[in-house]
C-alpha cells in the first residue's frame, strides 16, 4: 500500500452502490481515485456456480471476510396490543413466536461492489415527497436537494446500470424514457397480475436492472431468477460490472480489496488528515489523504464516524446533531414470496397502491 497522499486526489472507503458511483464520478473528471474495500473481490464466472447441484438451496456464495459480524443486546418485550402486525406466513405461522422483538439480520455483502453483488436489481427512484419529510411531517431534516435536481442523475445512472421498464409518468416523473425496453411478463408475473386484478389493485411492471437486451458488452438477462445468488452472466447492474468497471477502465481508479479502515483522523478544523487501516496482509498503516468519501453502508458508515471521535469531536465525526447512529432512514417494503421455484424475471411487477399511497 502506498502511503503518499500525493498519489491520489481522493480516497473512497467502501466500493458498494455509494462508493462505486462516486469512484466513477471522480474518475471521469480525471481525478485519481483510490477505493479501499474491506471485503474480497468476486469473479462472477468462477464464484457464482449456477451449475452446482445444491445451488438453488444456497444463498449468496459468501467468501471469507465478505460478511461482517453482528452482535445484539437483548431486545425489548413486544407489546401484546401489537400482536397482529407481526409477520406470519402460511407455512410456519408467526415468524417470531417469542414475546420479544427479534433482531433483523443486517443483510449485506462486504466485497468489491458491496451489497449490489447480492441485490435483486429493483431500480426505483425515490418518491419526491420522501425528500420532504420535514416540511410534510416535521420529522427528519430538510434535504439539500429535491427530485427535480436529482432527476438528470437518475436518468444517467439508469443508462449505466441498464434499467428496463415500460415508461409511465407517475409521481416520479421522467425527462426521458427508460433506457431499455420492458420484458414480457412470464408465468410468475402473470400470476401476480391476476392476483392483483382480483383484489382490485393497480399493478405495474417493475423497474429492473436486468438487461432486456445486450448493453455495454454485457449480455441480456436469461431470467434464471438467481439475482440474489450473484449474477454469473453480468447482466444484472451490480456496481462491479457497471460503475466500477467504467471507473477502472478510465485508468484513474485503483481498487484495493481486503483493506479495512478502522479510524478517520481529523484535525481541530474538522479537516480530514487521513485514515488508519488494516491492509490485506493484516498490517496496520496510516494513509494520508486530502479528500475522503465515506461510503461504508448504512450501518458501517455511522460506526466508523463514531469510532473516529477525537478531542475536537468527542461525539464522533459529523455528529454535531447527535443523530449519527441512533437515527436511520427506513423504506417500507411489502412483498410476497412463492414457495414454488419459478424461473423468470425476478420481482416482475409491483402494486402501485403501496408505491404512491399517501396513507
Ligand atoms: C439481498 C439484497 C437485495 C437487495 N435488493 C435491492 C434491490 O432490488 N434494489 C435496491 O435498490 N436495493 C437493493 N438492496 C439494497 C442495496 O444493495 C443497498 O442499499 C446498497 O448496496 C447500499 O449501498 P452502500 O454503498 O450504502 O453500501 P454497500 O453496497 O453495502 O457497500 C458498502 C461497502 O463498504 C465496505 N466497507 C464497510 N466498512 C468498511 C471499512 N471500515 N473499510 C473498508 N470498507 C468498508 C463494505 O465491505 C461494502 O462493500 C438489496 C440488498 C441486499 C443485501
Query: CATH top level of the domain at 1-47 and 106-119 and 238-318?
Result: Alpha Beta
What gross morphology would you assign? globular
Oligomer: single chain
Count of helical regions: 8
Helix content: 10-25%
What is the straight-line distance between the termini?
53 Å
Walkthrough of the structure:
This protein has 359 residues and is α/β, with parallel strands linked by helices. The protein has a domain at 1-47 and 106-119 and 238-318: 3-Layer(bba) Sandwich (FAD/NAD(P)-binding domain), CATH 3.50.50. The chain contains eight helices and eleven strands. It has helices at 17-27, 44-47, 133-137, 147-161, 187-198, 243-249, 300-307, 352-356, and strands at residues 10-13, 33-37, 88-89, 93-94, 203-205, 253-257, 260-266, 272-278, 284-288, 292-294, 349-351. The strands form four sheets. Strands 6-2-1-10 form a four-stranded parallel sheet, covered by helices on one side. It has a three-stranded antiparallel sheet with strand order 7-8-9. Helix 1 links the parallel strand 1 and strand 2. The longest helix is centred in the middle third of the chain and has 15 residues, at 147-161. It is globular, with a radius of gyration of 22 Å. The termini are far apart. The mean pLDDT is 88. The site of flavin-adenine dinucleotide has 32 residues, from helix 1, strand 2, strand 7 and helix 7. Flavin-adenine dinucleotide binds next to helix 1, strand 2, strand 7 and helix 7.
Amino acid at each position: 500500500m502506498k502511503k503518499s497522499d500525493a498519489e491520489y486526489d481522493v480516497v473512497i472507503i467502501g466500493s458498494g452502490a455509494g462508493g462505486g458511483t462516486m469512484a466513477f464520478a471522480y474518475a471521469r473528471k480525471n481525478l485519481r481515485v483510490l477505493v479501499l474495500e474491506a471485503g474480497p473481490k468476486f469473479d462472477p464466472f468462477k464464484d457464482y456456480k449456477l451449475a452446482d447441484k445444491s445451488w438453488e438451496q444456497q444463498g449468496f456464495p459468501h467468501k471469507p471476510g465478505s460478511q461482517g459480524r453482528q452482535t445484539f443486546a437483548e431486545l425489548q418485550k413486544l407489546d401484546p396490543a401489537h400482536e397482529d402486525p407481526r409477520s406470519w406466513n402460511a407455512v410456519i405461522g408467526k415468524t417470531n413466536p417469542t414475546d420479544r422483538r427479534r433482531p433483523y439480520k443486517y443483510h449485506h455483502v462486504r466485497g468489491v461492489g458491496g451489497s449490489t453483488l447480492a441485490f435483486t436489481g429493483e431500480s426505483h427512484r425515490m418518491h419526491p415527497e420522501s425528500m420532504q419529510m420535514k416540511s410534510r411531517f416535521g420529522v427528519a431534516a430538510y434535504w439539500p436537494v429535491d427530485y427535480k435536481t436529482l432527476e438528470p442523475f437518475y436518468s444517467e445512472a439508469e443508462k449505466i446500470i441498464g434499467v428496463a421498464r415500460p415508461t409511465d409518468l407517475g409521481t416520479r416523473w421522467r425527462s426521458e424514457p427508460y433506457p431499455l425496453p420492458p420484458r414480457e411478463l412470464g408465468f410468475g408475473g402473470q400470476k401476480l397480475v391476476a392476483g392483483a386484478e382480483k383484489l382490485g389493485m393497480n399493478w405495474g411492471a417493475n423497474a429492473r436492472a436486468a438487461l432486456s437486451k445486450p448493453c455495454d458488452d454485457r449480455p441480456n438477462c436469461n431470467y434464471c431468477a438467481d439475482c440474489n445468488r450473484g449474477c454469473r452472466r453480468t447482466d444484472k447492474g451490480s456496481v462491479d460490472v457497471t460503475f466500477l468497471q467504467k471507473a477502472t477502465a478510465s485508468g484513474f481508479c485503483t481498487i484495493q480489496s481486503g483493506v479495512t479502515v478502522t479510524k478517520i483522523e481529523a484535525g481541530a478544523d474538522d479537516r480530514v488528515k487521513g485514515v488508519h487501516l488494516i491492509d490485506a496482509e493484516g498490517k496496520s498503516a496510516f494513509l494520508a489523504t486530502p479528500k475522503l468519501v465515506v461510503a461504508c453502508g448504512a450501518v458501517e458508515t455511522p460506526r466508523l464516524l463514531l469510532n473516529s471521535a477525537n478531542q475536537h469531536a468527542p461525539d464522533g465525526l459529523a455528529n454535531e446533531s447527535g443523530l449519527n447512529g441512533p437515527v436511520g432512514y427506513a423504506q417500507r417494503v411489502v412483498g410476497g414470496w412463492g414457495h414454488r421455484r419459478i424461473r423468470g424475471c425476478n420481482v416482475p411487477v409491483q402494486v402501485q397502491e403501496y408505491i404512491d399511497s399517501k396513507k
